[in-house]
């Protein structure tokens, strides 16, 4: 449900913008308002799940997410929609932060655990496929409000099932404590960073630099807090691992490019090629379907045969090539020649790269830090997506507005803005490829655990 909700909004963006009067950069906050609290709170609520019990955190998160979805569905203003989208992000973090921990507890045997994680990944891919398609179908037939209201029956059924099926568990107790000041600092830093990027075109260079400086100061304060706190939210010694640090950096760049493809690609189909919401959702179906098939059918075996490093490089090459093809998308383009080939390259690349980079990141963590490393990996995935979306949408909107001011036709100016975003996305993907090739290359000195344990965990998480 949380994956579906991240994707279902994409196709409905033009309808939401038209109904509530969002500006181009401001529209991105319909997505970012969900992603930023989601990513910023994952570490904290994961820790709280250990303290109060994972089942309790999971069911409470479902309740918050479902209630916020209903409020999104009845939103009548920009401010209300953004506020309840942020509340959705809180509920999404509460559920997602403890899911992998529950899976590990339910399936302690490595092979069964690997199968469970594969099923979990397949469910996520199914959510992606349904999200884009349902977003188009619901928006076109009965209105964009129903892309949120659809979560009500799903959430109620999931909540009742969780109460009945999941065994109760006891946490360590709130007396053990959690780093609430640290969580406040890092969440504030993430929100300010994206806000500075999204509004850069309207605010000007001076205001953007001030916000960036404040955000940097919050990140520095968070780092100092983690170095001195008795129970830090994020133990800094994790970053001594070349594999874990490098893999998280690669993931930020890779996910930033993929989010740009999904968001800008949907707008290109609607605003340049003239697709309806339903046609756009149907056009995007091959991407999540192919990702799901390849992740379940080939990725684990391919990683086992060639190793995660080689598979990751191939995946990043395909992602870079797909973004490069999109950067040529013309104003009079067609889906079959200008969109679908790039979409298939991007999908195959992501299906190869994500399990590989996950395996490398988790193999770079000590056994006692595996849960924290998992939370960090989920956090950087959300951060990469939100920052990539903010940068690329801002660039596209600024380029389009500039051309309109010069007298360019609307569709032509929009297409040119999208091409700029895809070009920058190509550079981001290429930077991820270069970082992976240099930092994650086998044989370099590393503070990662013993090779045997690293290889075993890479196989499991892959």
From TrEMBL:
Membrane topology: Multi-pass membrane protein
Segments crossing the lipid bilayer: 27-45, 57-76, 82-105, 117-138, 144-166, 178-198, 204-222, 243-266, 278-297, 309-327, 339-361, 382-400, 420-440
GO molecular function: transmembrane transporter activity
Location in or out of the cell: Cell membrane
Protein name: MFS transporter
UniProt-listed PROSITE patterns: MFS (PS50850)
Origin: domain of life: Bacteria
All residue ranges annotated as the Major facilitator superfamily (MFS) profile domain in the record: 1-444
